[in-house]
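Example record

The entry below shows one chain as it appears in the dataset: sequence first, then structure tokens.
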Amino acid sequence: MNHIALTEIPRLYTGIAEWAACTIYVLNLKRKLKGPSLVAVMCAACLLQCGIQLAAGTFPKSLWIPGMLLAIGLMQVYFMITCEVTAGSAGYYCVRSFILAEFTASLEWQLYYNAVLSTQISEMWLDILVFFIVFGAVFGGAYFLERKHIRKETITLKELLFVTATGVTVFFVSNLSFVYSNSPFSSQITKEIFNIRTLVDLSGLVILFAYHILRQEMQVKYDLEAMRNILQSQYSQYRKSGESIEMVNRKYHDLKHQIAVLRAEQDSEKRLAFLDEMESEIRTYEAQNKTGNSVVDTILTGKSMTCQRHEIELTSVVDGKLLNFIHVMDICTILGNALDNAIECVIQIEEKEKRLIHVEVLSKKDFVVLRFENYFEGNIQFENNQPATTKANKEYHGYGIKSIKYTVKKYNGWVTIDTKDNWFKLNVVIPLPRED
């Protein structure tokens, strides 16, 4: 057993661990590559990662850090080639992968060393057995644990710096005794060196995972707050629309009486034609959606007036009574956001005859179905199952649809989005309440 250098983990194992740790996240992130091309890149990355580690093992100790940086750089490139991530997100997952790899390789070699001391099994077979057990258990557990907590997200510079600083600190402390055996914080006892390395790597792994969970919870709170603000805004718009429509109705009700008086007078045909035109215009503004639900009526009428100003044709077949069981603010959120998104899309179309929006609210078996359709030109890219924005400021994009999904979920419903033949379709399905 004297020939076993405990602190010197085989470079091949380190390379495999680094590749496997990256692959855990690659399989859980949204990928650019699929099928044979993805497999080819994975195999090439594994060979390169192991090759770099084996080559770095021949470097003098003064080049140990550059050798590690080279390996980490390859991990970063692996993420950038295979996944749809920014450089910041790739760096974030690269650090987490590196610490996971360090812990796994350290744990495997430590358990192998202790197993060799306590058994008489052939070292080669024992090495293979421990390798597959430890690597399979750690990376298999990491895969299923991470898949529940990974989503496409933007990593800020501060978050990247924090994770990087944590990773550097963990790596430095865990390898201090190996590189600088004479420092006040180092150990010269072989078993202690490895205990320190494994436990420090484990601590770093736990810290980074806890931080990942924490920032996701903070993002969820941020999303909820943004959706509450949008919901409140939609409700405020609904109230203002109701007040404005009531005022318009009063105004044109008075004008109708004035026109009736003028008609009773003896006027020329030209004056009558002029009055006919005025009355026609009044009917345009007077026309309201009568759906059986006053909230739906107000929202549709308000949005119809917006569409008229922008020369958008809005048609609707709506049974508002079907939505009577839904809270007023929730109706505002669903209808308001869906129509605002549709208006925002079609208003960009230059040909006015193509500015088309259609709304339906109907029942199907035991469900109420809300359909929002609008014409669009060009291609729509999707991110996280919702349309990607073309706006410069992407931070606050997508909360309209998120608000709809969040609201619909409260009623055990769901939302689907589809595009076909230049028509964007947003479908909301909500179970009708059971009658007791």
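Notes for this example: The beta strands are 313-318, 356-364, 367-375, 382-383, 386-387, 414-420, 423-431. Residues 32 and 81 are 7 Å apart (CA to CA).
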